[in-house]
Amino acid sequence: MQPLIRANNLHFHYRDGSSLNIPALNGVDLSIQEGEFIVIVGANGSGKSTLVRHFNALLLPTEGEVYVNGVSTRDRSSWRDLRRSISMVFQHPESQAVATTLEEDVAFGPENLGVPPDEIRKRVDWALDVVGLTGMHRRAPHHLSGGQKQRLALAGALAMQPRCIILDEATSMLDPSGRRGLREIIQDLHAQGVTIVMITQDMDEAAMSERVIVLSQGRIACDDSPRKVMTDEGFMQSVGLDQPLMARMSQEIHSKYRDFPDNLLTVAEIVDYIGRLSHHGRKKRTDLTGEKMVFSEHLSGSLSSPEPEKDILLEERGIIEAHVLWHTYMRGTPLETVALRGVDFTVQSGKVVGVIGATGSGKSTLLQHLNGLLFPQLGRVRIANKDITGKQTNLRLIRQQVALLFQHPEDQLFERYIADDVAYGPMNLGLHRDEIRQRVERAMEAVGLPLEVFRDRSIYSLSGGERRRAALAGVLALEPKVLVLDEVSAGLDPRGRRELMGLLRNWQAQGERSIVWASHSMEEIAQIAQRVTVLADGRVIMEGSPREIFNQPEALASYGLDVPQVVHVMSGLAQMGLEVPRDVLTLEEAVPAIERLLN
């Protein structure tokens, strides 16, 4: 049977503007059959995005061939049909928006295919509804949040009704509810016969596929089933990836309780097997009605809250305080959108504050008020006890002390060479040459890009993860007191996320430094935050320690959020009537508790 996509000895080199060739793919051989569901994983810079851009002729091989339906992608006369049958959702959705309203943007592809107007209208309505943007037809794409832009890009691909959809990190900016919804869409499309090729850094997401292809240094390191790939700890480490959390839990339990399997991948599998090994769990299971147990956002039993922790926000005034903050975009127009509705928010000196909320909840709008990129329309923001709108307030000094990294930090790079980019901020502070060099060297060392190695490297020669580190170095060189981070880990490989969190912990521990960390990853927030603020519809609806917040899964689910997977495991066991601790957040806490249960 002829494959839908075939790559033969595929090589590709990038040029960085000089004679230097940067190899991205090194002899890839690959076949994809129609109707398959394939996930491609690999560390940042392994060649994933480069590979899939060859599947619809956005890139052409430096050496070798790529065939789609048996036709070489070098045949330009085939490109129209090729791109009709293979749609792509890019890593950065802003690059796909081409129109002034959502409905025009989604209609762009079908219009260029000559689809009749009545059919275009049906496709636009269907696609926007599928991705959760119902009723937003007339909104402008640039007024959407990062996650909403990603949904829009997917809607545009769906409206083409292709035979194959390529998703390049399409879930990285989505909230938990949006991610679950997209996964359901993908599974439904696959059930209808659509070929799915998905790039992801979420190893739990990869586990839902039929086949996992692992790229390393531009080569295919492995091509096998998710269970075989993901449960091989040594292999995953060798290619710079982490195992799915549940695979790690399975192997941790197995190392202490040999009857427990070491190759489980999901929450449901873990909970089910523990129940089978527990006599009490088996008894409880026989009392159930026989309906399938579902461990997702809709849990039948809420965990009881632990004793409240001391409220650090009331002990002393914060370094940043927002009081009754309101913000409305496009005021006085038909597109008016209220983003913040009377928000109170405090950042304590030396603390890490996590900010979570569904897409469009107001997180990014709030964060941009914390260093004066946006000014309060109503309410006030005080930084170091100074009103940000005061006539005597030095905004330049504030932005030096409160540094903001956006959702795509690499977009903040603009110099040609890394060291020049990191030095830009200190130079504009009027510092002495020696002090500038010292700051650049300290900042680059802190993010794992040593000055002597990377000083003359071109920005364009860096991988996505390295660019993100370079952007962070440019901010650290300002030596701020507060770092405000808006989804900066999205799109990083597991090792990159772990290293980023480690270096930020080290930075924060060196003096009274604060971090505000907005993320859609509940695991990240559970690990790094000391305080969590939950936003919904522009309001603060919950505040507390991570244990207090994540001990309320039903409440979070009602706002489109989730809890760490470990909480789902412990909640599932509690549903069976098993005696387990109710405030566990991490793998390190959960495994001993499960071991005691099994013994």
Description:
With 599 residues, the chain is an alpha/beta fold. It folds into three domains: 5-238, Rossmann fold (3-Layer(aba) Sandwich), CATH 3.40.50.300; 245-304 and 564-598, no CATH class; 312-412 and 481-550, 3-Layer(aba) Sandwich (Rossmann fold). It has 24 helices and 20 strands. Strands 6-7-8-3-9-10 form a six-stranded mixed sheet. Helix 10 (245-256) crosses helix 24, helix 15 runs parallel beside helix 18 and helix 16 crosses helix 18 (464-476). The model is unreliable at 280-316 (pLDDT under 50).
Short synopsis of the structure:
This protein is α/β, with parallel strands linked by helices. The protein is built from 24 helices and 20 strands.
The fold-level CATH name of the largest domain is: Rossmann fold
Instruction: Find the structural class using helix and strand composition.
Output: alpha/beta
Mean pLDDT: 85
Number of strands: 20
| Strand numbers in spatial order across the main sheet | 6-7-8-3-9-10
Q: How much helical structure, as a percent, in the residues?
A: 25-40%
What sort of overall outline do the alpha carbons produce when their principal axes are compared? globular
Uncertain stretches of 5 or more adjacent residues = 280-316
Whole-number radius of gyration?
25 Å
**How many domain units?**
3
Number of helices: 24
CATH architecture of the largest domain: 3-Layer(aba) Sandwich
Termini separation (Å)? 52 Å
Major sheet, described briefly?
6 strands, mixed
CATH superfamily of the largest domain: P-loop containing nucleotide triphosphate hydrolases
CATH class of the largest domain: Alpha Beta
Assess the beta-strand content as a share of residues.
Answer: 15-25%
